Amino acid sequence: MDNSIRAVTTVKDEACSPARMRGTVTPWPSRASPFDPAHPYEQGLARTVDGYLRALSVEQKVGQMIQAEIANATPAEVSEFALGSVLNGGGSQPHGNKHASVEDWLALADAYHDAACAGSADRGTGSNAIPVLWGTDAVHGHSNVYGATVFPHNIGLGATRDADLIDAIGVATAKEVAATGLDWTFAPTLAVVRDDRWGRTYEGYSEHPDVVAEYAPRMVKGLQGAPDDDDFLGPGRILATSKHFVGEGQTTDGRDQGDVDCSEQTLCDLHAGGHLAAIRAGVQTVMAAYNSWQGSKVHSNRYLLTDVLKGALRFDGFVVSDWDGFLQVAADPGDACARSVNAGVDMLMVGVEWRRTYHDLLHQVRSGAIPMARVDDAVRRILRVKARTKLFSGVRPSERPAVRDRSVVGAPSHRELARRAVRSSLVMLKNDGVLPLRRDARVLLAGNGADNIGKQCGGWTLTWQGTGNDNADFPKGSSIFDGFVEAVAGNGGTAVLRADGCFDGQSADVGVVVFGEDPYAEGDGDRNHLSYSAQDSEPLAILRTLKERGIPTVAVFLTGRPMWVNPELNAADAFVVAWLPGTEGAGVADVMFRGPDGDVGHDFRGKLSFSWPGHPLQTPLNLGDTGYSPLFPYGFGLRYRDGADGPGVLDETDATHGRPVRCEPSAAGSSYPR
């Protein structure tokens, strides 16, 4: 990190940096942005944007600073209030229909576009019509859209250690989003997760900042294109978001939206690397984080959003709030608007009460609480991004080149890419010789995750929490069981599904138990311990029953974080972490079976991007910690070539309600790195 240029500034804002208040130097690098305002293209862009800005009234400028949810804002209201943006939040689709077609999405996108442009004409500014931006949470593929490809969540992608794969996933996701007429995704999440109790752990690539910093620019460029390429934000490309700025992965006790109590040096060196890399890659939007830093909400922290992000780093896109995040900075909604905008938030994402926010913001501007110069800066940034996205061309969403081939949504090539990602993400923690499986084996599939695409997709999939989905909601997807059926078909084997493990008195060559966390998102996923057995004892009972019958067992764990699973590890002959693999569950079987020729077809490649706990309360647990002693260390992952191995007999003491107990492999498993 380039620390050669440092700045010293006196700041009186109540949310300023403690370091700045003491007059000490700060650790932030200078000029991360690749855009040079002196470049002729940028100067021409600035003149165009200023022309649009001059034509806007105060009311229209305020409208540009509001982002409303599609369930609460009609196209007519977008026109009436000159709204700058709409979004579909998690689980929100056209007309509230989870199975809305691509045509439904395009029709609504056209309706918003037409209304925004018609509204400009009605106000006498038709030549300067300003289209609306539509944002969506395409955080692991276009996951709000029926039939779209759903890729593994970021925690699984972190285990692949494959930056080229990240780029390819960004490209595929952009094509699917663009094909539905949408402009913008709120991705990638660049949190460096330091406490796995946090309910958003699976949205992070790794506990290690290097992985996050490596992946950030590849995902941003996959989505947007590179700033120096001709196709930057061209057909089939969409806006990316660097989120959430900054520090959210280190809240106290892993509490969602909590406080981050760390030094400014740590904030910069540990948590900002992904954001710096994203800005260097040309990311056009940054989403402010819900969390506080040293007691000050980021949404109202002028030092971080203006002095650092827009000042030192020269970020020239716009800052969007998180969902109603600006309302957390003050009890009075109007005061909250003023504090957030004055701190550097340019666009307010409003969950429901966007009309109130519009009027509050307008009042704060008219009263002088928000200077007009700050309003003009915010709107100029929004218009600049719209210009770079080529929205001012006036082309309706359904007529854009990117939607000519609408079959790109859920395209076979994208699903094969997702299946490849699944294969690369699997981490084998234990193998006592049972894997790889023969294709002529009699396989029993058990556990409630074996034939459950909704469970394997996790949160942010068709619904906000990822709950309420079944296999019929994923018409092009495959469950893990489907992959096993495919693997044995025509090879003399059988794959039988019995969720409870009962096999009707028949014999099986192997029992595969697929289990793990049920879907969740954000705060609903927060935990106060990492014990899996404490929340669900049934998979362990199935594993033990199969073992008592002399059937070799394989555990496949679906999870959004490392968890304490010592009892399950002891009961299984092989243990595979599949994370949250998305719609292409068949990729699991690709690795667990031998190839058609009897040799290893696809070896395990995944490596832990998060340290694995040795007891239920062993968190925070991160590489480099003093006394670092995980059960499985960062970077661990067995290969078939490693031969039969096992961690020995593990301590199964559950310390979730008492003093933490150290649970490490016995001497028999001393070959495992600790």
Low-confidence stretches: 1-25, 658-674
Q: The biggest beta sheet, please?
A: 6 strands, mixed
Radius of gyration: 26 Å
Numbering strands along the chain, what is their spatial order in the largest sheet? 12-17-16-15-13-14
Individual helix count: 20
**Beginning-to-end CA distance, first to last residue:** 30 Å
- Anisotropy-based shape: globular
Total strand segments: 17
- Overall pLDDT: 91
As a percent range, the share of helical residues equals 25-40%
Query: Strand portion, in percent?
Result: 5-15%
Main structural class: alpha/beta
Essential attributes:
674 residues, alpha/beta, six-stranded mixed beta sheet, five-stranded parallel beta sheet, 20 helices, 17 strands, globular, disordered C terminus
Structure overview:
By secondary structure, the protein is α/β, with parallel strands linked by helices. Helix content is 32%, strand content 10%. It has 20 helices and 17 strands. The protein has a 6-stranded mixed β-sheet with strand order 12-17-16-15-13-14. Helix 4 (75-81) runs parallel beside helix 5 (102-122), helix 7 (163-179) runs antiparallel to helix 15 (412-425) and helix 17 (480-488) crosses helix 20. The longest helix is centred in the first third of the chain and has 21 residues, at 102-122. It is globular, with a radius of gyration of 26 Å.
